[in-house]
Amino acid sequence: MRYANRIEKIPPYLFAEIDRAIERKKAEGADIINLGIGDPDLPTPGNIIRRLQEAVEDSKNHRYPSYAGMYAFRKTIADWYKRRFDVSLEPGKEIIALIGSKEGIAHAPLAFVNPGDITLVPDPAYPVYKIGTLLADGTPVTMPLLEENGFKPDMEKIDRKIAKKAKLLFINYPNNPTTATAELEFFREVVDFAIDNEIIVCHDAPYTEMTFDNYRARSFLEVKNAKEVGIEFHSLSKIYNMTGWRIGSAAGNSEILAGLGKVKENVDSGVFQVVQHAAIEALEGSQDSVRKNMKIFQDRRDLMVEGLQDLGWSVEKPKATFYLWFRIPKPYTSSIKFSGDLLAKTGIVMTPGIGFGSHGEGYVRCALTQKKERLEEALKRIKRFTS
Ligand SMILES: *Cc1c(COP(=O)(O)O)cnc(C)c1O
Questions:
Q1: Do 257 and 203 lie in a common domain?
Q2: Structural domain of 181
Q3: What is the per-residue pLDDT for 9?
Q4: Could you say which of 30, 163, 220, 353 would form a disulfide bridge with 203 (CB–CB 3.0 to 4.6 Å)?
């Protein structure tokens, strides 16, 4: 089989290799503790499920939805932005529904990138920024996220010629995988850079509500002129444990959204209305379950960070996301070797940093997506592994 060049350019999926190693280990009868997946283990809150059940009984919801999303859903997103960030958006043209934010991120380059055009993508990062670019025959150029810069790209280090040629710039805060957060000052710098170089900014923000210790994450759209240059992707997946439901949104510049909308209009047919009704309930209904779930993640974070610190590993408590991101313990230098040994000797899965890009080498990501008892068991096994 000959695949198209753009498919051949997509690097091999490291995580498929990890999955095979897990399967082999399972076949040996090992009890696997998977801290590799960024998928909440907690159930979707009951009020959202009940709303879905009601909505599915109504045959009006069985037909093709509108491409851009129901007005009521877009209004809900607008109201949420107003409440949460004091950002005003017009539901009719400054918000669209997505089949999960991944879908919108992957499709955005198709609307703005011509063959050979450059996009600026962070490294380490969620892989879709780079892959979406490759699928549009574009050329992703890496912005390294270094610990000494708080895992934010150093905008001044971006080559001026590259910047002038770039069409899109992706950022993501609170960040997966590094757990870094960003303040408005950084977003302002990005907006200025985007105006100077005529670049579209795509801010991927599925973790703004997954924060700890009363930390409140900011929206990119809070910054003056952000709406002139960019859009922000949001998702219900992580915060409402709805990863399988497939719904998210993009908000911001209406012309950028119209471009993305044109791609989507011709590729998909919108989000099942039943899911949109459930999403409205998620955002407008009681947020008690969110607070409860974040307390669970915070307890897990504290347990795991303190446990690993006791073993001498250099782990810090993140302010946001449900991951830990830390340097692999000495004498390891290869994150793949570390993750491989950890799996072989303890049955614990953590994601090697290099899976998120070459600047992730030397780090590992641990997802807090297992119950406390399993994390306690993991700590016991890690203690044996290190002694
Ligand atoms: C989980 C995740 C997404 C995808 O979310 P969906 O809305 O489920 O597609 C996007 N970006 C980042 C950084 C993520 O971690």
A1: yes
A2: 46-284
A3: 87
A4: 220
